[in-house]
Amino acid sequence: MGLVLVKSPVRGIFTGYTYRGTALALIAFGAAGCQERYVTNYPPEYREYAYISNGGSNTVTVLDLVNMRQDRVIAVGANPSGLAVNPRRNEVYVVNSGSGTVSVINAETNTVAATIPVQRQPYSIDVDAEGRRAYVANSGSNNVSVLDLALRRQIGVIGAGVAPGLARIANDGKTLVITNRVSGSVSIADANLFKVRSSFDQCPGATDAIILPDSSKAFVTCSGGHQIMVIGLAHSTGSEPAPADVLLTFLDVGKTPLQITLKPDGGEAFVSNYDSDTISEITTSSNEVGGAYLVGAHPVRGLVSADNSLLYVSDFSAGWVGIYSIDDGKLINSVSVGKGPDALGFSADGHLLLVLNAQSGDIAVVRTGTTPASLLTLFPAGRAPNDIVVKAFRVH
Predict the structure, then answer these.
(1) Which DSSP state fits 233?
(2) If you placed Cys at 299, which of 19, 272, 311, 314 could pair as Cys (CB 3.0 to 4.6 Å)?
(3) Which of 314, 298, 259, 316 is nearest to 282 (CA)?
(4) Cα separation of 264 and 78, whole Å?
(5) What is the pTM of this model?
(6) pLDDT tens digit string along 288-328?
(7) H or E element: which one contains 314?
(8) Which residues sit opposite 126 in a β-bridge?
């Protein structure tokens, strides 16, 4: 199967690659499994929805996870891609790459409450821990828009490298990590001054990034090669404050590392190595790679359970989600989900895993609380689904 460089973002991660040349067999699901019901007890005022951006349909599909049904389909801007939820407000944000806008969805009514203009070809969005500001990576204008979410408008623009695909805000709200895919660089910006304070090169195809919970360090996937860039971030907290950003090291992982996911406790990170069919395990405190493990054909995304014990990996060409036991270092199970599984999301209680199938255009719901994990049902999505997020709240 070939990898072809393209100019526009595709699917759930801004990789710069599109996939072709391999036909996947259609996964058949038993009728009984698809009709099985998920039953749990929720208070009357509780709401929980999953939101899926459909790049080819200019819509967002909304799934009601309490009643296990499709709630509605919302029209947004052209070519919606990245999604984010507000941790303090009942809002969901949709980046419209073709329109140069961000749609604000009121999660209580599931309607578009506002549309915020940004710059050219926005791709991803991240929201700070206080739910006050959002950061939108604009791949077509080589910058990042800073949004005031209460005022619902752009209040600043931060310059970046060529074709930024991701802007990740640290937990302390002070540092923004920007991955620049085409220039193969990482920009570190002061989130309060709206200014880049340092830049690091030699990360070909810079794609995904994580920041440790204490805001001290960033790990960036260099998807054009086989390495992870590790950057020490300037910070004033903790026992060892750092006055400046510094390149700490490069870690060798597998071929085409697309995405990196962090355990909730921050102690380990896992890299999806697309062209090696492996994941690499990184100890974040010592910047060491513990090993690489086979998980399935072309892994693209990972998600760690809240108890730090299990890693779920979407294997794009295998049509399944692999389940990896972190303590045992073994692949313990796999669940067939559909064609081209990509983006992943947990329900609020972690008992359901939602899998976006990019090629079959649907959402698989996997029950994680059973042994082994099993497919619960499938929901249709729109054309070319890109991303998925979950928002849970109580209506007062």
Answers:
(1) P
(2) 272
(3) 259
(4) 34
(5) 0.90
(6) 999 899 999 999 999 999 999 999 999 999 999 999 999 99
(7) strand 310-315
(8) 135
